[in-house]
Design goal:
104 residues, mainly alpha, 67% helix, flat
């Protein structure tokens, strides 16, 4: 039996971007945040697609069940907490900058 070809790996960190002339440090940070989020979203979608396909192949759940799933109150609360932590993490650098400017 032959071994499957190794999957290509993505770098864990992006190479430093070339700065855009005239761009402020805040704009540079925002662009870096957007690029990082887009990269994370792409990886997350690929992994989610893999999980959904594996679950469907194993007859554990079909995609229609995923599409029609409605979380109960506790699950919605858990999701809200996850969302709030993620937003706080993503926008933390901007909040820190704003706080630092307010102290100046």
């Amino acid at each position: 039996m032959t071994q499957p070809a190794p999957r290509p790996t993505m770098p864990t960190r992006a190479k430093r971007r070339i700065p855009v002339p005239g761009q402020s440090p805040a704009e540079d940070r925002m662009l870096a945040m957007i690029a990082a989020l887009a990269s994370e979203l792409a990886v997350t979608r690929e992994r989610l697609d893999s999980v959904e396909r594996l679950l469907e192949r194993a007859n554990i759940v079909d995609r229609a069940a995923i599409e029609t799933f409605t979380p109960d109150a506790a699950q919605s609360s858990d999701r809200d907490a996850i969302r709030r932590r993620l937003i706080a993490h993503i926008f933390g650098p901007l909040r820190s900058d704003a706080d630092a400017q307010g102290d100046a």
